[in-house]
Amino acid sequence: MRAIRVHQFGDPSVLTVDEVPTPEPGVGQVQVRVHAAGVNPVDTYIRSGRYGVLPTLPYIPGSDGAGTISALGPGATRWKVGDRVFFHGTALGRPYGAYAEFTVNDEDKLYPLPANVGFAEGAALGVPYATAYRALFHRAHAKAGEIVLVHGASGGVGIAALQLARWKGLRVIGTAGSAPGLDLVRANGAHFAISHKEALYLDQIKAAADQGRGPDVILEMLANVNLDQDLDIIASYGRIVVIGNRGRIEIDPRKIMTRDAVVTGLTLWNASQEDLATIYRDLVTGLESGVLVPVIGQEWPFAEAARAHDAVMTQGAYGKIVLLP
Ligand code: NAP
User: Which has the closest alpha carbon to 163: 100, 204, 121, 110?
Assistant: First the structure.
């Protein structure tokens, strides 16, 4: 089969399309024919060699994908050949193994892809939707009627968060850095959208959130830039969830104290199997009913994986980037 592989950590040019043996499913596993693979920022951190846990070289990148069951391993009974599925993480490694024509997975780490959802959209679900769900409901304990600021709403996690928050009855504010990104944020449920490049935009957000009370919840995609200012606008008893961070920042902890605020964070890979099962059950319900509709901004063939990795780290996010075998 064809797979994208990394033989040495480095810039996007280290991504090569190789001919490799097709993986066979082991006990309790299934083989998946991958129709689309999602590109997440974490794929680039791992490829560059700058990530906490690194795979043994060479490895096949990518955690997210969607496709059809192509073979069953011994004792695998949950699926039948031809079933449509999506996944995040594979049996080749939890954040690896998706950028390939075939992958293998434990049969309980796949989720049914509803008939009304395409494979590219299915590849946009895993990390972005599960992260947004866990941030909103398991870490921030967001409730209907509360106000959420999705600080960085035009990308994979942000769009998912907008759709989830609207579905569950929150008031939603979203930011983006480009005009098309802002249009996308509005189209995906934001009651109020504003550019994070505009001067004094946080004042406008605070004013828009219940006449100055501020957001109850902030989902933060770039904490090293925004965390201290988030603490200026968060409502009393508010919760800030650090999802993305690319450096260090100085904050004034007094702001946390005076508001009885909570600053928390998450790493999706820390979610328990039970939490993930709950999350994916609810996501499938939302997909089937049409309230969750992943937005695909760019589709690239495998041969263009390097460009896809460049694109996911470029400003002006517009939904999700996927690779097609
Ligand atoms: P993405 O698709 O590349 O989107 C990045 C988002 O950040 C875009 O909305 C972008 O807006 C926004 N952004 C850029 N500059 C910003 C600023 N100054 N203030 C606020 N937002 C800004 O990435 P993603 O997949 O949504 O992931 C977002 C971040 O979360 C990444 O850092 C990723 O590594 C991290 N993440 C963490 C976890 C976890 O488990 N903790 C899971 C998934 C993702 P414009 O491009 O429109 O400016």
Answer: 121
